[in-house]
Amino acid sequence: MVTVRGREAGKPILVLITDLAMAETVAAAISPAVRRLAARFWPGPLTLVLPARERLPAALTAGSGTIGVRVPGHPVAAALVAGLGRPVTAPSANPPGRTPPRRIDEARACFGDGVAVYLDGGELPGGASTVAAVEEGRVRVLRAGPVSGEALVRALEGG
Prior knowledge:
Elements: H1 2-5, E1 15-16, H2 20-23, H3 32-41, E2 46-51, H4 58-61, E3 66-70, H5 75-84, E4 88-89, H6 104-111, E5 130-135, E6 138-143, H7 149-156
Parallel strand pairs: 1-3, 2-5
Antiparallel strand pairs: 1-4, 2-3, 5-6
């Protein structure tokens, strides 16, 4: 998929996971603050950036030393990750600068025969997840999305 969509070189690729136990297979550490955010917002549109285990391929981390993880809210994506029993790479399904396809017919029109198998999950809501990192107990939003920075701060404060 990375080659098909023309992903920019040097950008990390997030992985979908089932839970924090699976996150521990790719993350070097998971802080109590991250655990609090995961408990509040997963499954859902929050990608958490964690320190990566050293053995991860450079293509996933883009040399950043971090890995983005998310528990998907969509039942088809969640079932795929659970069925495989391991993290699944999840680059966005759109060429850079274009809106991601929301239906299978749009995906086929965008990628054609460059994709061997399409999985129809119905019409998707669209929009990218919020991407956040927790550093020294404070949350930093790296990409705005459906989960607001204020909601993240409230969750860390116990609200």
